[in-house]
C-alpha cells in the first residue's frame, strides 16, 4: 500500500465540529438586517448558507438592491464572529481523535473553505499549530466564493508549498473528494456522524470513521479502508 509524505486536512467536520445550520442562518440574517433587509427570503438565506457562487450572490443582492461587497462584508463578519463565540462557549470543539495527528511524521497542512482567519483561530484555540506546517482558508471576499472546493485553488497552493511526491487529502464532503482527485492526490472520506449517510457520487480512495484510521492510511497501512 502507498505510504504518503504529505497529508492535508479539511477543518470543519474533520478536525473540529462543523458549524450548525442554525448558527449559519443567524449570521446571514444578521447581515441582511445590518444592511436594512428585515425579511430576507428563506431561499436566499439557504442559498448563502449552502454555498452560493459569485454570480448567485450578485443576483441575491440585486433582488434587494444591495451593494454586494457591503452585504458580503457584513455576512463574513457575522459568520466569523458566530464561529468564534461557539468555540469559546464550548458548543463547538475539536474531535477527540485529533490526537492521532500528533503521531504523524509527514508534512501536514489544513485546507478549508472556511475563512483563513477562522482556521488560524482554530489552530491557536485548540493548540494545534505545531501539528501543521501550513494552512489555507479563503479570504473574506466575494471573489473567494468561486475558489472554494471543489476548485483546487487552495489545495494546489498548499501542495506547492509543502512539496512531496505523494499526497493525501482528508475531508468529510463530496466536494473534498472531488477537489482531491482534480488535484491529482488520493482522498480519504471521514464518515463522521453528521455525514455518515451522505450518498457520494464520486468514490474516495479510502473511507474511515476516525483520524486514527487516517493515521494508518497515511503510513501505508490502509488496505482495510480502501474503497
UniProtKB/TrEMBL annotation:
Keywords: Hydrolase. It comes from the Archaea. SUPFAM superfamilies: HAD-like (SSF56784). Pfam families: HAD_2 (PF13419). It is an enzyme of class 3 (hydrolase). InterPro entries: HAD-like_hydrolase_sf, HAD-like_sf, HAD-SF_hydro_IA, HAD_2, HAD_sf, PGP-like_dom2. The keyword Magnesium does not apply. Belongs to the HAD-like hydrolase superfamily. This is HAD family hydrolase.
